[in-house]
Design goal:
Largest sheet: 3 strands, mixed
Strand order of the largest sheet: 1-5-4
Radius of gyration: 19 Å
Order of helices and strands: HEEHEHHEEH
Shape: globular
Helix content: 55-70%
Length: 146
């Protein structure tokens, strides 16, 4: 497949710049949403908040692949092996990610037991009357046994 110089520029420069601008605007919103979710604990004492931040979600080895489009599946199938090879700690396979998320959602143990079970690299625990958590990709991978 040959690209014209103008097409190459659109793909490598224009799209990259547009994506960077779009993602830059998400960061404050994400932090604001997480903060607001954690604040709900004071109003709802039985609520445990799980803010999850997976990195590259790798669906290529899942039998449940249902991407948004054929192009997205095609791209993911080609990018995922590179991520697994070059940045293995930045990859969250869908199966183990789903298992961790379900375990979090089903967690009903006492506060002290949950803290002891989860504390460590990649998990920030907000303690108060109730618990709140921020699971970074490193924590997700650790809890998944990866």
């Amino acid at each position: 497949m040959k690209l014209l110089c103008s097409e190459y520029r659109v793909i490598t420069y224009d799209y990259a710049l547009a994506a960077a601008k779009a993602f830059a605007s998400l960061s404050p919103a994400k932090g604001e949403a997480e903060t607001s979710l954690l604040a709900l604990r004071s109003e709802h004492p039985g609520l445990r908040i799980w803010n999850v931040r997976p990195a590259f979600i790798d669906e290529t080895q899942s039998s449940l692949k249902e991407g948004p489009s054929v192009l997205a599946k095609w791209l993911t199938d080609r990018v995922a092996p590179a991520f697994r090879a070059l940045w293995p700690n930045g990859v969250s396979p869908t199966g183990p990610l789903a298992e961790v998320l379900v375990r979090c959602a089903e967690e009903t143990a006492a506060k002290e037991d949950v803290v002891a079970q989860l504390e460590g690299k990649g998990v920030a625990i907000e303690q108060g009357a109730t618990l709140g958590f921020v699971l970074e990709n490193a924590g997700i991978r650790r809890l998944a046994g990866l």
